[in-house]
Structure formats: C-alpha cells, structure tokens
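User: Predict structure, ligand adenosine-3',5'-cyclic-monophosphate.
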Amino acid sequence: MSNKNKELMNDIFTNCKLKNGFGPSVQQTAAAPSPTKRPLSPDHPNPALPITETPSPAMSRMGWALRTLLVADNSSCLKDRKVSGKLIRKCAPGTELVDWLVNLAPIVHTRAQAAGMWQALVEEGVLTHVNKEQPFKDKCFLYRFRLDEEGGAPAVGIPQAEDQHAANEHIREALSALFQRGPDATLRMILRKPSHERTSEELELVFEELVHIAALSHLSTSIKRELSSIFVFEAHAQAGTILFNQGDEGRSWYILLKGSVDVVIHGKGTVATLKTGDDFGKLALINDAPRAATIVLKENNCHLLRVDKEHFNRILRDVEANTLRLQEHGKDVLVLERVAKQRGQHSAFKYTVMSGTPAKMLEHLLETRLGQSVGGMDPFLDDFLLTHIVFMPVVQLVDELANYFHCDTHEDAQTPEDREYIVNFKKRVIQFMQKWVMAVRHAAFEEPSVCDFIEDLAAEVEADPDLNEETSIVHNVLTQMARYQEDRNQNAGQKWKLPPNGQPICLFSGNATPSKTVIRPDDDIIFRVYCADHTYCTLRFPMHTTAELIKACAADKLQLNRGPEDLCLVEVRSNGERSVFKDNDVSIPTGLSLNGRLFVSVKDHLDALTQLQEQECPTEGVDIDLEILSTKELAYHITLFEWDLFYAVHEYELLYHTFGRHHFGKITANLDVFLRRFNEVQYWIVTELVSTPSLSKRVGLVRKFIKLAAYCKEYQNLNAFFAVVMGLSNMAVSRLQQTWEKIPSKFRKIFQEFEALIDPSRNHRAYRVFVGKLQPPLIPFMPLLLKDMTFAHEGNKTSLDGLVNFEKMHMMAQTMRTIRFCRSRSLGLEPPSPKSEGEVRSYISSFRVIDNQRVLTAMSQKVEPTRKL
Ligand code: CMP
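Assistant: Predicted complex:
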C-alpha cells in the first residue's frame, strides 16, 4: 500500500476523525445519567444523511477498496465534473455506479441489489450525494466518496498496483458482507422517507419485514400494511442519548430494532434494560399521561422504529395488546390491562392497573394519573385511596409520600428543568393529599402520622414560593383537619352502654347530640361479662379494647383464678350457639347478636356454657299500642333513625369487617350497630305478630307491616324494607294461615311483589335492578353489600405472584362507592305530621325483640296451633 494511502487508511480506521455530522450539539447525551435533560428526537430523519456518527471500520475499508478500483479504472464513471459551474471532484451518477457494481460482482444480479449495497455505504457516510439531499438512488444524482469531499482527506492520484491488488483482495473477501447489508440499508432508507414518498414496492418491502417483528406479531395483516407507511426509522449514534424524559408528554411508541436502552426512574436509577425486539412508550400514549420513565440509550448505534401519537391513536390504540407488564430488576412490578372507554372520559381506551407492588402503584398514580381527572376522581386513584389500608398501611403511605415530597434533598446541583420537575412532583403530592382527604374524610385525620405529615407539608408549602398556588389547597385541608379535631374534642369522652337486657347500644352520656353520632375507637362502652354460673361483672372499656384485655379483666373481677391462656371470651347467642373471639379482636360488645351475651370461660369448659333465661324473653322496649301509631309516621321515624346509623358507618368498616377487624386493630362498631338494627327490625315484626293472641289484631298488624314496608320503600330505606318483608316471610309468621287468609287480596298481592323484590335468586337481581334506578339519598340493603365484599374477598386472592391483586381492590372499592353514592345527598324527608313525634321516636329506637327462632316458632304455634287434617 502506498504511504499516502496508508495514511489515509489509518485516518479512516482510527475512526473518530471522519465525523458523520453528528456532534455533541446534535444529540444530548447522558453518559452518567442525569435524566432531566430535554431530548432532541430526530422527528424527521433524513434518508440522505448517515445513521452513524463515524463509519464503521468495515465500511470504511470497503469504501476505500471500491474507490481504489473505481479510480484505477480509467474508463470509470468516477470523474471530476462541473455542475452548475462548480467543479466536483471524483463524482459519479448513481446509475453508473450501479452499472459498475453489477459488472464487477457476479453475486449482484439486479440493479436494486447494487443500489442497496451503495446505500449501505451512504448510511455510514462513506459515500454521499454531492448536495447531501438524496439517499442512494439508481438515478443520475451524483455521488462521491467522503474522502473526495472538500475538507475531507487529501485527494489521491491513481492508486498504485499494490493498493489495487489489496483492494481487489478485500473486495473478493468482503463483498458478500456488503451484499447482505444491502436490503437492510434499503429498508432503513425507506423507513426514513416521509410516508407519501414511499412507493408501493417499497411499502411491500417494509411489510415483509414487519412480519418478523415480535412486538407486532399480534397485529393483523391489514394493520401491518398500514404501519408500513407510517413507521419511522430512528438511529441514535451515542450511548447515553436520552430518548425522552420521565414526565414528558408522550409523543411516540417505539420498538427497539438494535441495541438496548435503560429505563430510568427518578430516585431509583435504572430499573430495567430493554433489548432488541422490546417495545416501550405506549403507556403514556394510551393513558394520555406523562412518561413514567426516562429512556436512555445503553449502547452506541441503537436502531428504533417509531410510531407517532396521531398514527398510534388512529391505527393501534384500539387493537393494542391487552396486557402491559412493567418490570424492575427482572421482576414484574405493575401489570396493566386495557379497559373499554368509560362514559365521560375523553380517551378511547385506558390501561388500568390489574396488579402491582404497593410502591409502584403509588408511583404510577403520582407520576401519571394525577391532574388529568377532568370531572371527578380517576377511578384508579379512588380505588387506591379506598383500599390501600389492605396492602399499604397508612404509616407506610405517609412515609412514601414524604420521600416523594423531599426528593430534592438528595440532588445537588439543580438545573431549572430539574427544579421544574421537582416542583411538579411536590404539587402532585399535595394534590394526592387533598384527594385522599376528600375520599376518606375523617379516617385520614384519625391517624396521627397523617396529621403530622399535613402540618409538615403546610409549613413547607408556605416557605416555597414555587408552591404559591398550592397554599389554598393546603389551607383547605388544614381547615378540614381543624374542624375534625374540634369535633373530636367536643365529643371526647362519649360513653355507650350495652344494657343487660340486650337493648340496642345507646349513648349513655356525653355532650353529643343524639343524632349522627359516630362511635369512636376511644369512646367507652359499658357492658356485662358473664361466667358459666351466670354471675357477671360490669366493665367499662374503650371500644378498641382487645378481647384479650377484656378477658383478663373479667376473669380477675369474677375471680376465675386461671391464666389467660386457659381462658377465652365467647358470645353465647339466645339459641345457645357459641362463638369464640380472637384475642386480638376489638369492638367486642357492639359485635354481639341482638340477645347475645358475653361470657368468659375456661377453654375446656365451653360446652358447659348455657344461655341465660332472660335471653329467651323479649328485649325491653317501649310498651305502646302499635295500632294507634300512624304507619307512615313509623316509617318516617325508622328512616330518620336508620339514616343516622347508616351515616355513621365509614366505608373502611366494610373492609375491616370483610378482612377481619383484628387484622387492622380497628373497630367496626358503627357497622355492627347498623347490622344489629336490621335484625332488630326483622325480629320485631315476628315478635309482635307471634305475641298477639287476637286473630283480628294480628290481621290488622300484618296489614300495617305491609303498609310499613311500602312506606319504607317509598322513603328509599331499603334496609328497613328488606327487614320488614323478611320478618313477614319468617317461618313463624308465614305459617299463620288463619291470619293470612283474612288479609285482603289487594294486600296479599302487594306483599307478593315485595317478596319478589327481595328474592335472592340470580344474585338478588330484582333488587339490584330496582335500586340501580334510584337516586340518592337512599339506605341500601346492607347485608347484600357485605355479601358482595365477602364474595370479592373469598373469590380472589389479595396477592398474586407477590403483587397486590388490584382487581380485587377495585371490586371492593365499587361496593364501598355504593355507600358513598347512597348518601351523596342529605335526607330531607317531609314529616307526615308533627303530633306524636316524641312517642314514635322513642318507640322505634328500641323494639321489643325475641331473636330465638325456636321460641318464636313455639309462640306462633301457640297463637295458631297447626290445624289437624
Ligand atoms: P411510557 O410511560 O409511555 O414511557 C416510559 C416507558 O418505559 C413506559 O411507557 C414503559 O413502556 C417503559 N417501562 C418499562 N419498564 C418500566 C417501569 N418499570 N416503570 C415505568 N415504565 C417502564
């Protein structure tokens, strides 16, 4: 090789000197990922430009060899030519280069193959169009070797024989490699052309290639054909280039054709590396959300296929794969599934969370799902807020939020973009806080860790001028918190009692008004605990006291002289059934059945426990002649009374009840009282009827109760409606043939309609259809909501492969939302008449009730003995 050419070759192979027009100013890089820089995405790649920063050694050498032979050939097309009065050294038209190559190499059969091989040189910058406007075309456009460009390497003369020999040798060895690269280079060139410039043959070529891409395998042929015209090829020369940043607006979806990229998340660093064949970036497109991660190129010369948002929405949105799995460090952390459009949402489809780790779900919420809930709360956020206590205790949630809020303390130098990102993040934490308080109300303020966090947040927001707009949100939350605390202080020291005769739990003393009184964990309750010989002690404990403590204290007072491990706390129902409490169970007295009694017993002697005599008798109630009370007024006061009980139940109590309150150490007292009330009304109906000896009075009562059910239905108190109708359907009542025979057919027909409405078949379909048409305020049939919760709980695991099964959480939140819906408007019933108000009110607040079915049936037999045939 001549010295001159040797120099030239050295220059070429040391590789960095011939830059392909990529400079640091063209692409931002993030060698040490500082993923806050704005990316510069080559939105409109130019097929005339190279895709590498420098030519690869192989292509440089190939170019050198081809050029050497072309220059050596006197008759060759590579000549100095004048174009528009300007001399261009050693250039040749595309057509002649193609002719020359077809002649040179026996493996090249078609002109298209030769053109592809020249394009392989063009895409690495070894050969260029003289004006850098064209990729390689088998046309009369002029091309020249990079070496001959002005400003490039010095011009060289006729190559010496030894160089020609070396060039020939090289071409013999390496031409087939170039031959193989031709089709790919052609394809990349087509994919960099604007769609309207792609010919039908070119589209066919692209289509044939798309068939082999795994990320597209689920798509139909017609969609792949559409994609052929809109896929864009992007090449990025340098590792460290940021394709897009976390928090950016999503503009494209990508498939990685060559190379690898890192998925980087603020505060976590690189969480995953995606490889050839993987795709990314559709989450932001489908959810119309900010990017969940920054994508940084891990290698030089990465190749990507890109589909821009408008095309993605038009072609892919509706057919995209149903499930999307996000991984971190090789493990699934979030599994999303596409769901159909919900009314009122502007995007056609959304990915919703099916399962995930608690922390990733929270990150997903904070990063991508806040701030876009036009017209109400994002259902995923609402589900999360209603159910997080199952998988992420409050203390952990507060910790995570505090970490997010203080993410800036870890970063040293902050660019304005970093700062903007951090401020946005802080704003989202504040929004989250506001929505949290909105969704769960006082339950958030009951946690000291939440109150501390809110106060810290408020102080920081006040001190940060960037968070000026957030001060009003924080003040609003603070005001609500202060109101809650004031209310709490006012009602502190409430005392409840569970009277010995099994009356409903009632407020014993305290400052609170009798209505809308919530039972709180530290309210005291006074109740009796019996032992096997029916002696008892009276205890007073806060509601949240554990069974273990009650057991120990009762054993001590009753002088049982046994260690706590030998003893248990047990309920004995009026029918003699027993159920043992777990040591860590709480709100014990409110959980008792209507006529149940609490016993402390030696574990081995449980069988010896018998119910008290008084448990078979009716509970005490106001003695009044029911006949004289107006039915409508009864229904009215029952509804007002039960509305208050229903209003006091927090949605969380349904979760505590379903998962077991001992898991949370939280009371379910308000829910207990409401459920107890259902049984009270139901058994009141039965008790009244079976304890009325006069047939005509019984007939009058049945008519009254049917009317009562009708009024309860009218007042939308479905809980009482069910209780009354179930009472009338109780075996002890339905068997009263003589009574029913005397009920006018008009009433019997109404009753049949009511029975059809409470028919449990097809999962209470009749009721569900009926209640589905009602508008709030309404009191739902609570036992069905609890059944739905239990069904969701028992039919679905809480954790799937180490991830929270969020579908289950969603099902539970739906039921909890029903409660919220029912009381989303306040009850404003017109009073039927003001006259006997006090009397009716005190009557309905405590009914005389026997809840032992055996006793009720026996009484029924007594009033109407079975007729002998
Ligand atoms: P998108 O939010 O549109 O942009 C960032 C992309 O990174 C995201 O879509 C996913 O396609 C991809 N990605 C891969 N793994 C993760 C991860 N663990 N967390 C977030 N995004 C991820």
